[in-house]
Amino acid sequence: MPRGNIAHGLTVLAGPTAVGKGTVSTYIRDHYPHVWLSVSATTRPPRPGEKEGVHYYFVSPERFDELVAAGEMLEWAVVHGRNRYGTLRSTVEQAVAEGRSVLLEIDLQGARQVREKMPEANFVFLSPPSWDEMVRRLVGRGTETALEQQRRLETAKLELAAESEFDHTVVNDDVQRAAAELVSLMGLAPSERT
Question: Could you point out which of 35, 79, 87, 188 has its C-alpha 20 to 30 Å from the C-alpha of 44?
Answer without folding.
Answer: 35
